[in-house]
Design a protein that fits this description.
Blueprint (H helix, E strand, L loop, with lengths): L1 H22 L21 E6 L9 E5 L4 E4 L4 H25 L2
Antiparallel strand pairs: 1-2, 2-3
Keywords: Cytokine, Secreted, Signal
Pfam family, one: IL8
Family: Belongs to the intercrine beta (chemokine CC) family.
Length: 103
């Protein structure tokens, strides 16, 4: 009977340790498990970010002005163009806001 109790106690302790470790780990918040093939117009894009390095698949998460998050494949040409356009748009807005501050 004693070995059985020790086994159960060890199993419960292991389960609690696993839960505590997973709650406080610094792993990825969001990963892409599939990619959208729908081309998103740049005027609908608010921002984007890449997925965490620990994700199984590299991806880009597009955030639309309607606050939708859409996973896209960063190797696709249209995605690369979209990222470049969003970056250029952000740079333009930053330069306009900094030149407006000096007036």
């Amino acid at each position: 009977m004693k070995p059985y109790c020790i086994f159960i106690a060890s199993l419960v302790l292991f389960a609690f340790c696993s839960l505590a470790r997973s709650e406080f780990s610094q792993g990825p918040n969001k990963c892409c498990f599939s990619f959208s093939n729908v081309k998103i117009p740049v005027k609908q894009v608010e921002s984007y970010h890449t997925t965490h390095l620990e994700c199984n698949r590299n991806g880009v998460i597009i955030i639309t002005k309607a606050q939708r998050e859409i996973c896209v494949d960063p190797t696709e040409k249209w995605v690369q163009r979209l990222i470049n356009l969003v970056d250029a748009q952000n740079m333009k807005e930053m330069s306009q806001s900094s030149s407006g501050d000096s007036d």
